[in-house]
Model the fold of this input.
Amino acid sequence: MTVLQSIFLGIVQGLTEFLPVSSSGHLAILENMFHIETDGGMLFDIMLHVGTLLVVFVVYRKDIWKMICEAVFMFVDICSNLKTFLLNKIHKTSLKYKKIIHNSYRKFVVLVLVSTVPTGLIGVLGSDLISDAGDTLLIPGICLLITAVLLLMADTVREGNKLPRDISYRDALIIGAAQGCATLPGLSRSGTTIAVCLLCGMDRRFAVKYSFILSIPAIMGAAVLEIKDVIEEPIMMSQVGIYAIGMVFAAIVGYICIKTMLVVVRNKKFAYFSAYCTVVGLIAIAGHFLL
Done:
């Protein structure tokens, strides 16, 4: 891989990770159409995703820090309740238990954990299918058309106002399952999860926040599972520096795009991205049969 190819794919990753047009779909299409060899593609893909993951931490740093703190406090309260349970059993007392989920950030933490379960199960069980789907233009093309439909639905759905306190764990499971399905190339992770969040009645601004923060455990989990494959791949050290350049460009462009998405969702401008996904999807499908 050349430096220019790395920069190009980094820009594509940054643009498509947060804009609802599928980063994996675009990368699969570009690599298939232009026969780009990444010479250790798994590591390169992980580094690109790490670059965009850092952007989420930067943009939502205050929310993420509060969530981490509340997660620690929840663990302390659970341990305290366990101690209370044992004391009540042993000494036949009636000590009161602490309420674990008593604020919005604690509920937010639990919702993300609940959503992560179906995402992880689908990701692990369907890993072979997901890997094979990226080797052809047909699947990414079809999935981009599905993304286009979801984006139109997101624009037309009735305005919701649900915040963490109003969101059910059933909603969280549905959103997590949608994110798991969006590991297929061409099915936009951000577009799919934001659309499903809006269909579940979430506030539009919070839907964006939920979608991007939910990506953190998904990307980190996928990276951990792929470490073994990365170690087994023949990687030239000279390529690692080139990969890093792509990662930096993915982060810079991703920061701009995540800010753009807040405006897009608030102003209901998904229709433009829906049209784009339709065009690219049809081109990919045509390419499958013609190339």
Notes: The chain has one domain: 3-290. The radius of gyration is 21 Å. The mean pLDDT is 87.
